[in-house]
Amino acid sequence: MKAFKYIAGIIMLAATVSSCQKDLNRVPTNALTADKVYSTPEGYKQSLAKIYGAFALTGNGGPDAGEGDIAGIDQGTSDFLRLFWNLQELTTDEAAIVWNDPGLQDFHVMNWTSTNVMIRGLYSRCLYHITACNEFIRESTDEKIASRNISGAEAENIRRYRAEARFLRAFEYWVLMDLFGNPPFVTENDPIGKFTPPQTNRANLFNYIESELKAIEPELVAAKQNEYGRADQAAAQALLARIYLNAEVYLGSGNNKYNDAITYAEKVINSAYSLNTSYRSLFLGDNNVNNTETIFAINYDGVNSQTYGGTTYLINAAVSGAMGPATFGVPNGGWSGMRSTRNLPETFGDYSGNTDKRAMFAGNKIEMDDITIFTDGLAVAKFSNITSTGTTPPSPNGVYTSTDFPLFRLAEMYLVYAEAVKRGGTGSEATAIGYINLLRQRAYGNNSGNISTYTLNDVLNERTRELYWEGFRRSDLIRYGRFTGSSYLWPWKGGARNGRAVEAFRALFPLPSSDVNANPNLVQNQGY
C-alpha cells in the first residue's frame, strides 16, 4: 500500500456522514456517531484517509459491491478520475473511445445532454467529496478539538488535517467551476439535513477558491514535507497558478491574472520539488518511489485500493490483447477502449519516440476512419503498471494497477510561467525559454530540441507533448479558443469524420437535469 492508507477511514467517516441526514434533534440510529469517530487523534487521521480515499475509491464495499458512494451509476465507472478524465480528454483530439456505454460516445462527438449519466456522475462525485470535506472541517474546529481534550502537537496535527480538507474541497470546487460553471454551493457553515443549496456562479466561486487557498497556504505543511499523496503548500500554490492562468475563462475577457499566475508558479518552481530525470518513470507502477516532481497524486494500489477506475481504467482501456497486456503490467487486462486522434501524435512531428521520448504510441494506423474500431488511431502507451525495474506490482486479478495519477506536477508550473509571460504577465521570457528547454532536454536526452524563441502556440504544443492524457486538454483548448467553433478541428469533433464547428455553449457541461428538477435554486447553463 502507498504511504497514506485510505482504507482505515472508510467505514468511520461514511458512518458519520450518513448519520447526519435527518433532523438535527434526532439521535442517530447508527452507534458510530461523530463524537465517537473524532474522539481521538487516530480517529481524525482515519477520517482524513477517507477524504483522500474518495478520490481513488468508489465506495466502502470494494469495486464489485452492488453499489458505491454514488447512486444511479455503475460503480466501476463512478470514481473521480475515470469520470474527470472522460470529460476532459474524450471531448478533445487527445482521445476517443470505442465502447458504447451509456453516455460515453456523447463526449467525442460533443452532443451530450443534461441527462448524461457520466456528467451526473462527476458532478455527484465532486459534491459527495465536498460534503465529506465539510463534515471533517466542521468536526475539526478549535472548539471541537478542545472539547475532546486533544491538545499540543496532536491538536496541531488536526489543524493541518483541516487545512488539507479545505484544499481538497477547493480542488473539487475548481473542478465544478471549470466544467459546470455555476454549481450549488455548500460549506461547513450550512445546516445539515433539510437544506436546499443555493447556486453560485463562476466569479463568486473563483473568489472563494482563491481566498480559501490563500488562507490555508501558511497552514499547510511546507513543500515536500508531508506524507506522499497528501497536500502541501506547493499543491495549494499550484492550484492558484492554474486558476490564475485561466482567470479570463472564469471571470471574462479583460480580467486576466497573469502576474499572479507567474507569482504562484514561481513559488512552486522555487520549492523543494525538482524535475525527475526520467519522464517515463512518472507514469509507471512504482511512480510513488523517488518521485521528486509530482506535487500531488491520486494513489492507487492493486491490492489495497482496488477500483475499475483510476489508472486501472487508463492503462487497461489503452491496451489491447494484441499489444501484450503483460508488458503493461496487466496480464489479464487489455480492454481495447481508448486511443488518440492523429492530432496528438502529429504534434510531435516524429512520433516514433526516437526523437522526443515523450511520444509513446503504438499501432499502425494513425487515421480514425471508424470511431468504433480500436486500431483506427494510435494507442497511447504513456501509462503502465510495469515498474521502473521491469516488474509487475501485486494484483489479485492481474488487472488492478498500482500506478499513481499526478494531479499536479512541477512541469506544469514551468509551462504556466511561460504562457503567462507570453500573454503579458510580468516575467522573464529568457527564464521561460529556459524552463521549456529543461522539459525538452529531458525529452530529447540532449540539447538538440532546445528553442531560442517561442510563441503562444508553441506553449500549447509543448503542453500537449508534456501533459497529454493527464486531464488538461479540454481546459487548454478552451483557454486558447479552440474547443468549440471551427478554428480547430479533429476527427469526429461534432460527429463529422473530419470534424466540424461545435456550438459555443459546449464549453460548459450542463447541470444534471435530475438536480435542476430537485433543487429550485438551480438555473440550467445556457444551451441545455
From TrEMBL:
- Keyword 4Fe-4S belongs to the record: no
Domain spans labelled RagB/SusD: 377-528
Organism encoding this protein: Mucilaginibacter defluvii
| Pfam families, A to Z | SusD-like_3 (PF14322), SusD_RagB (PF07980)
InterPro entries associated with the record: SusD-like_N (IPR033985), SusD_RagB_dom (IPR012944), TPR-like_helical_dom_sf (IPR011990)
Q: Which UniProt keywords apply?
A: Cell outer membrane, Membrane, Signal
Keyword Signal applies: yes
Q: What is this protein called?
A: RagB/SusD family nutrient uptake outer membrane protein
Where, subcellularly, is it found?
Cell outer membrane
The SusD-like N-terminal domain extends over 112-245
Identify its protein family: Belongs to the SusD family.
